[in-house]
């Protein structure tokens, strides 16, 4: 509670007592490039600016027009190995898995000259995403490769005995999104601003089908389920926090 109160008091101090340099036009017009982070004063978190974890930049073309772009590249991998060299049935098992996510958002903002510090805007943004996932199981000299997701197995007790349940995570997908948005920048200094943004838009996700390649002598060569799924989401889009940015 003390940390939250300190953060709020500090923000109020910056807003009301920090003196900006005198100028005839808003600060962002003096410098063409900018970037920002998202800060939530209620839990003390500091994160990349949007829900997709993308790095965002803006380029001001004029005093009323700005281009915006955001990019995300994420990679996950894991490796497990088990080896039994003794006994009558020695074996070696391996699990190798990886996934790669890339996402790109492009948009434009129309700014309105309200004063030397406040800069409200309207805009739009289009987004595209792609995720690839693969997992490879090895047993001695044989292997099983799954494309489109990672396979997980869990034990479920039904009150009498245990059964195994197979699920798939880290599913690959192709996504598309679009939104109209509005927000504002309030400049505390020539290079530093705070602001807020919300919008209304949609997101479509088409998940990858699971594909398996299995060697003939692999212990478990059962067929994969025919999963063909997609999701639609339409509604308001709101970041839970305050935008903190700077121009350079």
Question: How would you sum up this structure in a few lines?
Answer:
The protein is built from one helix and 14 strands, in the order αββββββββββββββ.
Description:
With 248 residues, this protein is mainly beta. It has one domain. It has one helix spanning 2-17, and strands at 33-40, 45-48, 55-60, 65-84, 91-111, 118-139, 142-147, 150-157, 162-169, 173-187, 192-207, 211-214, 230-238, 242-247. The protein has an 8-stranded antiparallel β-barrel with strand order 1-3-4-5-6-10-11-14. The chain has a two-stranded antiparallel sheet with strand order 8-9. A hairpin with a 4-residue loop joins strand 8 (150-157) and strand 9. The longest helix has 16 residues, at 2-17. 19% of the residues are buried.
- The total strand number stands at 14
N→C terminal distance: 35 Å
Q: Let me know the average pLDDT.
A: 80
Strand content: over 45%
Unreliable stretches (pLDDT < 50, length at least 5) are 1-23
Oligomerization: single chain
Major sheet: arrangement of strands: 1-3-4-5-6-10-11-14
Structural class: mainly beta
- Choose one word for the global shape: elongated
Helix fraction bin? under 10%
Rg calc? 25 Å
How many domains? Answer: 1
Report the biggest beta sheet as strand number plus sense, adding barrel if it closes.
8 strands, antiparallel, barrel
